[in-house]
Design brief:
By secondary structure, this protein is an alpha+beta fold. It is 26% helix and 16% strand. The chain contains eleven helices and eleven strands. The protein has helices spanning 21-30, 79-90, 104-110, 139-142, 153-159, 210-218, 233-237, 267-276, 279-285, 315-324, 348-360; strands spanning 2-6, 35-37, 44-46, 49-54, 60-65, 117-124, 127-132, 173-179, 183-188, 201-206, 224-225. The longest helix has 13 residues, at 348-360. It starts with a strand and ends with a helix.
Length: 363
């Protein structure tokens, strides 16, 4: 049995309805997507679809589905299941789109007015066609996101709007129980199409306080934790009973500027802000050296990332830009920060205070 200490509980276990990392980590074990990323890279590989291709004009994608797969409730995975899952999100009047339900990542990834997917059809039980409004370069890449896990249509019909409490997928693990704010228990799926996982049972335990998570790990009460306080990484690395694993992240911490604001709609002001923030010092002091200065809105390991010239820290240049924009004495603005830390933004309040102090240097 593996006991995992997590920063928070899941918000729900219906992949189409989640938009947080804690829920998606659990759902990845319960549900499969049509394609997935390999365990050690961002390379796409087959999952519930064994192959895929697009038409010469890029407007139709054909997916050939894996045969012999069953949902945890014993019902077959087939093309109709794919149609039910995607049409549930695509069509506001679909029978499995429960009243009040939102599909956060559907609109964010594929647009909603209109959706970039026009329609789907299935010529047979193991083939699905996606017809697009326009060519979408990252279409297949997006389908690997956990939010597009395939749910048993029979379970959706059975549990209705309570399906987020009763997850039924095709994944490596089956759902056992969820006691909110206490634990989520999964058991291995002996019939998993990719072979049964070696760990027979996995228990996710929410432990909000990072120090408490670490103490429980060192005491052996949990076997794995996520969301380690960055200042404690070196200390944990010295503990021979603990293994600290790290890898480059796929996220970016950033300062967003409201272009609707009369100040920030000016490019000169935005450039001035960039040159007033000492990002290398933030990496050293707040990320404890466990980050790199971003030069793009995408991390280096994602395709589409471009090597752009960095804005160097230069207070004099920042003041000059502000003066050219019409603000030689600066201006006042509100800085909002997240209420809870994330891996890419570990100490939001402190980060806000540091950025505030840096910007005050130029007005």
């Amino acid at each position: 049995m593996l006991i995992v200490g997590k920063p928070d509980d899941a918000s729900g276990l219906d992949p189409a309805l989640i938009n947080d990392g804690e829920s998606s980590q659990v759902c990845r074990n319960l549900f499969d997507t049509l394609v997935r990323h390999s365990a050690d890279s961002m390379k796409l590989e087959p999952a519930l679809a064994v192959s895929w291709k697009h038409s010469p004009d890029g407007l139709t994608w054909t997916f050939n589905l894996r045969k012999g797969v069953k949902f945890h409730d014993g019902t077959p995975f087939n093309a109709q299941a794919v149609l039910d899952n995607y049409n549930r999100q695509l069509q506001p009047t679909h029978a499995l789109r429960f009243p009040g339900n939102r599909f956060p990542y559907w609109a964010d990834i594929w647009g909603s007015n209109p959706c970039l997917i026009d329609s789907l059809d299935a010529p047979d039980d193991h083939t699905v066609h996606f017809h697009m409004h326009e060519v979408v370069a990252p279409f297949v890449e997006n389908m690997a996101a956990p939010f597009f896990g395939i749910v048993s249509p029979s379970a959706l019909k059975k549990y209705g709007s309570d399906s987020f409490k009763h997850p039924v997928g095709t994944g490596a693990y089956r759902f056992v129980e969820w006691i909110p704010r206490e634990r989520i228990v999964l058991e291995s799926n002996p019939d998993y199409w990719d072979g049964p996982p070696p760990m027979k049972k996995v228990v996710f335990v929410p432990i909000k306080d990072a120090t408490s998570r670490q103490l429980q790990l060192e005491a052996g009460k949990v076997h794995l934790i996520t969301g380690i306080s960055l200042e404690n990484v070196d200390k944990l690395s010295l503990n021979r009973a603990v293994s600290v694993l790290s890898q480059p992240g796929m996220n970016v911490g950033y300062l967003a500027m409201n272009n609707q604001d009369e100040h920030f709609r000016q490019q000169l002001v935005r450039q001035a802000v960039c040159q007033a923030i000492e990002r290398k010092e933030i990496v050293r002091a707040l990320y404890h050296g466990l980050a790199v200065v971003a030069e793009s809105h995408l991390p280096p390991m994602l395709w589409g990332q471009a090597d752009l010239p960095a804005y160097e820290y230069n207070l004099e240049r920042s003041r000059q830009l502000l003066a050219r924009a019409g603000y030689p004495d600066g201006f006042k603005s509100e800085l909002w920060y997240m209420s809870a830390g994330r891996t890419y933004f570990p100490e939001p309040k402190v980060m806000g205070e540091v950025i505030q102090a840096m910007l005050a240097e130029v007005g």
